Amino acid sequence: MHGNYIINSLLSACLLENGGEIGGEDCVKMHDVVRDMALWIACELETKEEKFFVKAGAQLFEERDVKAWEGAKRMSVMKNQIEVLKGTPKCPNLRTLLLSENKLQVVSNGFCRFIPHLMVLNLSENIGLGALPEGISQLISLQSLDLSWTSITELPMELKSLTNLKMLDLSYTYDLRKIPSHLISSFSKLQIFRTWCTTSGDNPKEDNVLNGDNENLIEELKSLRHLNILTIPPIKSLFALERFVSFHLFQCCTQALHLRHLRESNVFNVLCLENMERLETLYFEGCGSIEEIKMEKLSPNTNYTSTFHTLSHIVIRGCNKLVDTTWLILAPNLCHISIFGCAKLEEILSERKLGEIADVVGIP
């Protein structure tokens, strides 16, 4: 909440601007003039050993001025046209490297060899990038690794050496098929873990936590005591969902939940999610058996007036038997509703069911 207040204050002062929506999330960006001034101040005040190297949006087609990288501490070459990183830069001072929104397809195995103190690596939105370089295991100081919107197919077990990792973002890695067993649980300092991927079911069977209902992945996540932001691959059974929501750590840190192909029952009690304190996005997909999303109290003494106060995005897709979505009235801060492929949906809010809402929230 404090972070939102700061961002809103900067927006009001026109120091930040609305950056639109990416992946269903609202974004902000720095005003061009403010950005130029910040870079000027940084480059003027920083010593030679701690300088900034910024070539964002410079229409680069290859890594240039590799020699100039050597003294850089913070570096951004995002929003360019770079397809291959084949050099072996020697950057002993480099802490931050932003390579997002390029056209990367290959990163040479030697690229990571001489950047031992790198803490932040952003490779996001490189759709052509299908594999990580072997040398990435040498980045033992790495704390933040963003691989979202890439085409990587698996995480190498060599990542286990990244024991300082605090943030791993695998959002929208639709081609991801394998995460080796015991890899995620080895990141004992992990605070943020995002994986919003849609696997096709042809995953490798052995030594892979993405098999079945992702229960092995969930078991590994239970050991990460520092987690505070979590999104996981689709949950595909009510049994797996019940186990997931019963664990206190997941109740406190889950930001997005994807329920897919729930077929065990024609009724889903949405109040089973009552303890999800930070849930912002809820996605029902292909739950063709569900006819009703009901609101049945799990505890007679619970006040449900603020149960879904953090929920802002709802997507309901391919739930062919669903008749209404009256339960949405329990989410007072809902900003975005997307419903499609629900052939029998008659109404968003059912007047007949509003009485149930009154009973649930305790209105006489």
From TrEMBL:
InterPro entries: LRR_dom_sf, LRR_R13L4/SHOC2-like. It holds the Pfam family LRR_14. Keywords: Repeat. It comes from the Eukaryota. The keyword Transcription regulation does not apply. Residues 75-339 form the Disease resistance R13L4/SHOC-2-like LRR domain. PANTHER family: LEUCINE-RICH REPEAT-CONTAINING PROTEIN 57 (PTHR47186), NB-ARC DOMAIN-CONTAINING PROTEIN (PTHR47186:SF40). This is Disease resistance R13L4/SHOC-2-like LRR domain-containing protein.
